[in-house]
Design brief:
single chain; Rossmann fold; 2 domains; 5-stranded parallel beta sheet; binds 1,4-dihydronicotinamide adenine dinucleotide; binds 3-hydroxypyruvic acid; glyoxylate reductase (NADPH) activity; hydroxypyruvate reductase (NADH) activity; NAD(P)-bd_dom_sf; cytoplasm; hydroxypyruvate reductase (NADPH) activity
Length: 324
């Protein structure tokens, strides 16, 4: 008999058909306690789950005694209790690599949009304010040849460094737990401690995962170490930055601007002070959101689930120790 799996994200038809050729698939909207309660038998029978963004913790796992694989349509997995999964022998599969270039494009978009005030001035044009030659109140700052600091020199950080180095002639600084030879050799990136990176960068770019270590890594103290002309870019996870401290720093001119794809609470509440600051470009977590990349992520997640439930995993497992 085919194993039962729960799908909690919409898939393109061809990928759904592929999933259904291997499994008995139940489609649900989410993994909320209410959904679990209403579909108790489905969760009790499920050997696999596939979707994104929902919390999978100890309390959830109590309802899934047969679960063997969780396949997330994302590279980030901070919404999973990995220790709880591992202690139950459940494999966690994710989708690195297929989204790397697209997310780096998004980060470069934020760098350019904040520096050149693209959103703000486009809105002024739409509001009919472009009535003659523009003056300094419409000007931005240069991106090329400025120093770009990277926090999180992993796959996405490297792809960002490539764009900044070759495309914009930007010196690259990075802080990491170890030296990255590839970044140093290919992009002339210079390793430095966090304080030096904050003090010397014109753009501080975050492509870090959210972990206990990175939670609120950037707070008031760190923002105060940045240049007052510097711009903060965050496309890692919202809680890596203390959002209250960031709002204060943007309001009092401690830093120049921020380009944000991720927030402490998503969707960003409509009354967030971030939305009334002209020096903020706020995107709705679109880092990987292109048609091509979202398709590739979904295909990767389907393949990951098939591989893991058939004992055939070659890549993309967060906790490979459960496979031994
Ligand atoms: N905005 C968006 O739509 C997206 C956001 N992301 C976020 O980007 C993150 C990174 O993705 P990848 O580059 O593929 O992952 P990765 O694992 O290749 O890179 C993360 C890097 O951060 C480093 N790191 C972790 N903790 C650190 C610490 N405390 N101090 C310094 N460095 C530390 C790791 O050593 C690694 O080099 C994801 O975990 C996710 O949170 C990923 C995709 C899309
Ligand atoms: O993959 C991730 O981690 C995202 O945030 C969305 O692509």
């Amino acid at each position: 008999m085919k194993p039962s799996v729960i799908l909690y994200k919409k898939l393109p038809d061809d990928l759904l058909a592929r999933l259904e050729s291997h499994f008995v698939v139940t489609q649900l909207n989410d993994l909320s306690p209410q959904t679990v309660q209403q579909n108790a038998q489905v969760f009790a029978d499920a050997q696999g789950i596939l979707g994104s963004s929902e919390t999978v913790d100890k309390a959830f796992l109590e309802h899934t005694p047969k679960l063997r694989v969780a396949s997330t349509v994302s590279v980030g997995y901070d919404n999973f209790d990995v220790d709880a999964l591992t202690s139950r022998g459940i494999a966690l599969m994710h989708t690195p690599t297929v989204l790397t270039e697209t997310v780096a494009d998004t980060m470069m978009t934020l760098v350019l949009a904040t520096a050149r005030r693209a959103v703000e001035v486009a809105e002024r044009v739409k509001a009919g304010e472009w009535q003659g030659s523009i003056g300094p109140d419409w000007f931005g700052i240069d991106v090329h040849h400025k120093t770009l600091g990277i926090l999180g020199m992993g796959r996405i950080g490297l792809a960002l460094a490539q764009r900044a180095h070759f495309g914009f002639n930007m010196p690259i600084l990075y802080n990491a737990r170890r030296h990255h030879q590839e970044a140093e050799d290919r992009f002339n990136a210079r390793y430095c401690d966090l304080d030096t990176l904050l003090a010397e960068s014109d753009f501080v770019c975050i492509s870090l995962p959210l972990t206990d270590e990175t939670y609120h890594l950037i707070g008031a103290e760190q923002l105060a170490k940045m240049k007052s002309s510097a711009i903060l870019i965050n496309a890692g996870r919202g809680p890596v930055v203390d959002e209250k401290a960031l709002i204060q720093a943007l309001m009092d001119g401690t830093i120049h601007a921020a380009g944000l794809d991720v927030f402490e609470q998503e969707p960003l509440p409509v009354d967030s002070p971030l939305l009334s600051l002209p020096n903020v470009v706020a995107l709705p977590h679109i880092g990987s959101a292109t048609h091509e990349t979202r398709y590739n992520m979904a295909a990767c997640a389907v393949d990951n689930l098939i591989a893991a439930l058939s004992g055939n995993v070659k890549e993309n497992c967060v906790n490979p120790q459960v496979l031994k």
